[in-house]
Design goal:
Blueprint: H1 7-12, H2 29-37, H3 45-53, H4 57-73, H5 76-89, H6 98-147, H7 150-155, H8 158-200, H9 202-209, H10 212-248, H11 250-258, H12 262-286, H13 288-314, H14 322-333, H15 336-343, H16 345-363, E1 387-394, E2 407-414, E3 419-423, H17 430-436, E4 445-450, E5 453-454, H18 460-465, E6 467-471, H19 481-485, H20 494-503, H21 507-512, H22 530-544, E7 548-552, H23 560-574, E8 578-582, E9 594-599, E10 602-607, H24 609-615, H25 618-630
Parallel strand pairs: 3-8, 3-9, 6-7, 7-8
Antiparallel strand pairs: 1-2, 1-4, 4-5, 9-10
Helix pairs in contact: 2-16, 4-6, 4-8, 5-6, 5-14, 6-8, 8-9, 8-14, 8-15, 8-16, 10-11, 10-12, 13-14, 20-22, 22-23
GO molecular function, one term: ABC-type oligopeptide transporter activity
Keywords: ATP-binding, Cell inner membrane, Cell membrane, Membrane, Nucleotide-binding, Transmembrane, Transmembrane helix, Transport
Protein name: ATP-binding cassette subfamily B protein
Length: about 625
């Protein structure tokens, strides 16, 4: 098959290795490391991450300079404070020296203003670069997913794909806005603060930092407790979201009203809401003891410093002055939280790498069905619309190796303008025929020929442009009727919409709505009946005006009256086009030019309706069963 090597790896993605799990907020570190460990191993990951930021090199360099300068400036005011006390307010020569004090105060204000402006600039640069990289990566991933074959989506949960696009890509911005800034800023702040403290007085520095390890350990313990509660809170939020999606969708509301279970759903939501309230309160309270300890520590250190300074002064130390004490306590207050921030840096880097690895895992997937380098467009000639299956066999990618193929050595030809119907028991393989013509799947063996060329030699865009599909399950967007129709042709005029809808026998119905073509159809078209949705789908295909029309059991879900109306629209749509109809109700294809009977993946009969009835085989049995089922009482 066209999937080639790597099919097993792609199939494994159906389980979504790490893809469906979100990053632990405020981090239960052990849980987060387990999630990170599950991330795929991507060769040259760091180089590929750097390549993403390469277009923003200048902004990144400026950002790093701003972080370093800002962190360095942050420790200057405390040193100037010492000078303000010792030289400006209480100089050895007597009263305050206002001139010197004014210079020091002005310099301090200038530093504060400069730090604030640098902080704003840094925030703007990091936010801009981080979100640009995130946005470009999201579009790149979305574009790549659009190119993936249909089987990828049938075996991969939608939630996993959404998690890659939203959670994983969304976390990329944090790499720059949080992680890099945290590493540079906190490191420089801690080093500069320690240097400043040592310059002021080394004895007081020992007193100030000796209790730091205790707070660091306490922070780790509190962080783990809070994160476990945060994990339960996220699970509860997920449950609430699931309840909302299930019960407030159109289908969910219809179900609850049909069985009069609204109060049950309200009670279920209220119970989970109470659980959420309890967890939120626990999460808030779990850190209060830690912050109380931090408050006590930060409040006690200056007092202890005052006491030690008094001992040093009593002992005759000339290095301890009033300015030294004030400056030292100011610098010391800046030391704790940068230290705590640096503790999470290693985990943040590991988490960021895991996010990138999961994103690159999807970007490295090779679509099983892609254009060859020498692919050509479909020729617009006399053979346009001719479809041939030449000894085609097909097995779905996830089927067991010893399973019977879905199609087995199928050969047939549908001439341009011919109406060909495929019928057979459920699971016989007839719908698979409709998948192979537009190359939604690739034949395992044999050739599918369109317009005289193997579909593998044709450009996919050109192939699909010549094929229109009307399926049993019509998909309409939550938009206007006009918008849904113009999905086939964005530049379609009002006259073209009217012509298509008239041919599909839906124009009068649309005009009966107060807003006409501007009528909102609702989620998945729930404001319309099944027959109305199906006729809009037919009109949409007519706007596309394809050479080949594929009807995949387009009327099997409709009532008898709707079926007649839709069938008339289908007859109009198929006129003058090559039509392949996958039929469940045999009464809809009795006028077909040729009927192919599929059973267990093989073509067992072919002919017109009369010929197949006279043959007395599988088709005759199926037809007789349906006639008996629909006959009165």
């Amino acid at each position: 098959m066209g999937g080639g090597g790597g099919g097993g790896r792609r199939a494994a993605l159906g389980g979504g290795v790490g893809g469906g799990r979100s990053r632990v907020s405020a981090g239960d570190e052990s849980a987060q490391r387990e999630i990170n460990a599950e991330a795929p191993k991507i060769p040259h990951l760091l180089r590929r991450i750097f390549d993403l930021f390469r277009p923003h090199r200048a902004a990144l360099i400026v950002t790093m300079v701003l972080v370093l300068v800002g962190a360095g400036l942050s420790v200057l005011p405390p040193l100037l404070t010492a000078q303000a006390f010792d030289v400006g307010l209480f100089p050895p020569s007597g009263g305050p020296n206002l001139a010197v004090l004014t210079e020091i105060v002005v310099l301090m204000v200038v530093i504060w203003v400069a730090s604030a402006l640098l902080g704003v600039w840094q925030t703007y640069l990091t936010a801009t670069v981080g979100n640009k990289v995130m946005g470009a990566l999201r579009v790149r991933l979305f574009s790549h997913l659009q190119a993936m074959e249909l089987s990828f989506f049938t075996r991969t949960k939608t939630g996993i794909i959404q998690s890659r696009l939203q959670n994983d890509v969304g976390g990329v911005a944090n790499v720059l806005t949080n992680t890099i800034s945290s590493i540079l800023g906190n490191t420089v702040t801690v080093i500069a603060a320690l240097v400043a403290m040592l310059l002021l007085n080394w004895q007081l520095t020992i007193v100030a930092v000796i209790l730091m390890p205790i707070l660091v350990i306490a922070q780790r313990r509190v962080g783990q407790v809070r994160a476990r509660i945060a994990g339960k809170t996220q699970e509860s939020l997920s449950d609430m979201t699931a309840i909302t999606q299930e019960t407030l969708s159109v289908s969910g509301i219809l179900l609850s009203k049909s069985f009069n279970r609204q109060q049950t759903e309200i009670a279920r939501y209220a119970d989970e809401n109470q659980n959420q309230i309890r967890l939120q309160v626990s999460q808030q309270m779990s850190g209060q003891w830690f912050f109380a300890m931090v408050s006590i520590f930060l409040s006690s250190i200056p007092a202890i410093v005052y006491l030690v300074a008094g001992w040093l002064i009593t002992g005759g130390s000339a290095d301890v002055t009033a300015g030294t004490i004030v400056a030292f306590t100011t610098v010391q207050a800046r030391l704790l939280f940068p230290l705590l921030g640096l503790m999470r840096v290693a985990l943040d880097l590991q988490t960021s790498s895991a996010l990138f690895a999961r994103i690159f895992e999807y970007l490295d997937l090779d679509p099983a069905i892609a254009d060859r380098d020498d692919a050509v467009p479909v020729d617009d000639d006399a053979t346009l619309g001719r479809i041939e299956f030449d000894h085609v066999s097909f097995a779905y990618p996830d089927a067991p190796s010893d399973a019977r193929p879905t199609l087995d050595d199928v050969t047939f030809v549908v001439e341009p303008g011919q109406f060909a119907a495929f019928v057979g028991p459920s699971g016989a393989g007839k719908t698979t025929v409709s998948y192979l013509v537009p190359r939604l799947y690739e034949a395992s063996r044999g050739r599918v020929v369109f317009g005289g060329r193997d579909v593998r030699e044709l450009q996919q865009d050109s192939l699909v442009a010549n094929i229109g599909i009307v399926s049993q399950e019509t998909y309409l967007f939550h938009a206007t009727i006009g918008d849904n129709l113009r999905y086939a042709r964005p530049d379609a005029s009002l006259e073209q919409l009217e012509a298509a809808t008239k041919s599909a026998n839906i124009y009068e119905t649309i005009m009966s709505f107060p807003d006409g073509f501007d009528t909102i159809v609702g989620e998945r078209g729930y404001r319309l009946s099944g027959g109305e949705k199906q006729r809009i789908a037919i009109a949409r295909v007519l706007l596309k005006d394809p050479a080949v029309l594929i009807l995949d059991e387009a009327t099997s879900a409709l009532d008898t009256v709707s079926e007649r109306v839709v069938q008339a629209a289908l007859d109009t749509a198929s006129h003058g086009r090559t039509t392949i109809a996958i039929a469940h109700r045999l009464t809809t294809i009795v006028a077909a030019d040729v009927i192919y009977v599929v059973d267990h993946g093989r073509l067992v009969e072919r002919g017109t309706h009369r010929e197949l009835l006279a043959l007395g085989g599988t088709y005759a049995e199926l037809y007789s069963e349906q006639v008996l089922d629909t006959s009165p009482g």
